[in-house]
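Input.
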Amino acid sequence: MGCSRVKAIEETPCVRRNSFGRIQTMNLLLIGNYTPDRQRSMLQYEQLLVEAAEGLGWQVECWHPTVRYGSKVNTLSGLGKLAGYFDKYVLTPLTFRRRWARLTASEQQPDFVHIVDHSNAPYAPYFQGVPVLVTCHDLIAVRRARGEFAPACPRSRITARWQQHWILNALKRVPCPGFVSQASKNDFIRLTGREEPAAGWPILFPASAQPLEVVPTDVAAARLSAAALKIRPPFIHHHGGATWYKNREAVIDVFLKCRIQMPKLSLVLSGGKLSSPQQARLEQSDALEAVVDCGAVTTEVLSALYSTASVFLFPSWYEGFGWPPVEAQACGCPVVASNAGSLAEVLDDSAALFEPGDIEGMSEAVMGLIQNSQQSRALIEKGFKNAERFTFEQLQSDYKTWGLAACGPLATTK
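Output.
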């Protein structure tokens, strides 16, 4: 697997010197997520890290939790979820311990291990003898288990509370945490009770997992037509999963309020599908026919939607980073979003930001952008500049710094 995005930021590789002073290539072991859980964003993030590391000249190996009982079931609910738990928390520790023992016996341990998602922090103790890095994306599940998002979302069930308590305890002991935003770091410090060392813990803003750019109107129309999507402007676009914290209820509320002033306005949703209660709400409001529920879409279709939408709406209750609004900005779409979690930090003044429950404010902002082209163009320009902050090159540079610092004085650049 090569670095398909850009070439290495340096022509000379990042290396280490062994105890005899000989130069050796850095070796990295990435611990990814349990694949049946279909956490697309985490799999994309893992791929970003692989490309960044290989572009630096590092040797990369990826391990994932064992898949046996969860291979043919839905691991997100019911008995399938229990099957996934058995794979992740019973079989995987046995597998990782055995594989690590073989590496240790053959003296082929990596220079460091990087656990891609903090939810896998309980695996950290299995990798003795080398630095273990852990990326903390968000602590939404931990906070929900503690009831911090009620009444917007009820407290987790007892099994999820146990799971998140275990993860939090593991995070209290991980030696080298890193974060995708200051918001995530703040939650980590508050919930773990840990004090940040003088050297600090790094923040590595992720680059877009799927590089996007403005698509000309005729090309976008052709892509949408080929995907059998009948969409006419003006329309509000929302992209994201169907999970509660994406706050799709607010998306619907804003759309219905705006539609009173502009009856021809449409709503286009991509990513997760509408829930039955959400569909019923739209049907009761005689607005279901004005909604295009795309579900999962290709990168080509997504960029076409971003490029032709009048406004991108993203009123999340919380985000650890928040890729979609930055992607929309890169495609020339003005953004209206909440100021929750990382979004105020990631978007700053390049988007119209509101409290997640401020339906009135978001509705006025959406209508203002649709009806005032000058206002829209100004926000689009700010969005372009903001999106330029989150480059693959910057992620790669930050990753190099973090990895070399973790490996200590023997790590260097040839």
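Residues 1-13, 15-23, 410-414 have pLDDT under 50 and may be disordered.
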